[in-house]
Amino acid sequence: MHFDILTLFPGLFAGAFDESIIKRARESGSITIALHNIRDYAAGRHQVTDDTPYGGGGGMIMKPDPIFAATEAVLGEQATAVPIILLTPGGRLFRQSVARELSRHNRLLLICGRYEGVDERVHQYLATDEISIGDYVLSGGEIAAMVIVDAVTRLLPGVLGDPSATFEDSHAEGLLEYPHYTRPPTFRGHPVPKVLLSGHHAEITRWRRQQALRRTWERRPDILASAHLTEQDLAYLQQLQGTG
Ligand code: 6GU
Predict the structure, then answer these.
(1) Most informative mutation of 12, 61, 92, 133 for ligand 1 (most atoms within 8 A of CB)
(2) Which one of 169, 173, 177, 233 is the catalytic residue?
């Protein structure tokens, strides 16, 4: 996977891509990342990238011409084949299913907008997709771009050592994750649940499933409806409703 990231603040990305899983994915060649400073594509001696909004009001708006020029220079011949994703609070919500969808491409171009706004011509005539990472306000799309690069990279073949790790993760299956424990068996008086020390694998599997169901029911009832549930899962949830 190749990521092109268009931003006014390439320095924000230092660090995020230089540690842990992303670092290893880059070293092994699973991904490549190219940062492009939009300012380099702005015309004139002052290389202006934003301007005041037509119609008045506060804030500065990112000008369309540097963003179009940067995109066209970066993509060249590939301009039609690569998703051009504008990171903006008005975009479709980023979720695991979107990460999975993006991971099927071999190249993505991410445009980091600033919160105050990007000229509408970029939304309408350049971007092929618009994504938001949640219902809160960020100063710009840079952190959203990091989130997308991370979530997509973990899905690429060979990036994580153990393929079962991605499958069992929260959200991958539509449920929150069950609780995890490691040594010591009792920490400050708080013991690890006995079943996990029992060696009964079937019971452990059942307990974990029930914990995942309970957590999801308690914390994210909104995602339960679209989870893949068995008859047994439904019976357990019925039981929870009764005792709840
Ligand atoms: Cl993609 N951009 C900004 N500025 N704020 C956001 C966002 C994006 N996603 C959530 N909040």
Answers:
(1) 133
(2) 169
Cα 136 to middle of ligand 1, angstroms: 7
Distance between CA 60 and CA 50 in Å, rounded?
6
Question: Count of alpha carbons within 13 Å of 172, Cβ hemisphere only?
Answer: 14
pLDDT tens across the length of the chain (244 residues): 999 999 999 999 999 999 999 999 999 999 999 999 999 999 999 999 999 999 999 999 999 999 999 999 999 988 889 999 999 999 999 999 999 999 999 999 999 998 899 999 999 999 999 999 999 999 999 999 999 999 999 999 999 986 665 555 656 579 999 999 999 999 999 999 999 999 999 999 999 999 999 999 999 999 999 999 999 999 999 999 997 5
CA distances from 59 to 55, 66, 90, 188 (A): 12, 18, 17, 52
In this structure, the residue with its CA closest to atom 5 of ligand 1 is 138
Beta-carbon count within 10 A of 67 CB: 26
User: What radius of gyration do the chain's Cα atoms show?
Assistant: 23
Separation CA 91–CA 30 (nearest Å): 27
Q: Examine the residue annotation and report whether 66 is marked as an active-site residue of this protein.
A: no
116 included as an active-site residue: yes
Q: Give ∠ CA 74-78-83 in degrees, rounded to 5.
A: 85
Active-site residue flag, 154: yes
Residue 176 is classified by DSSP as P
Contact between residue 236 and residue 210 where contact means Cβ atoms under 8 Å apart: yes
Return the residue matching tokens 């609070």.
89
Estimate to the nearest angstrom the gap between the alpha carbon of 231 and the chain centroid.
32
What is the atom index within ligand 1 of the atom nearest the CA of 138?
5
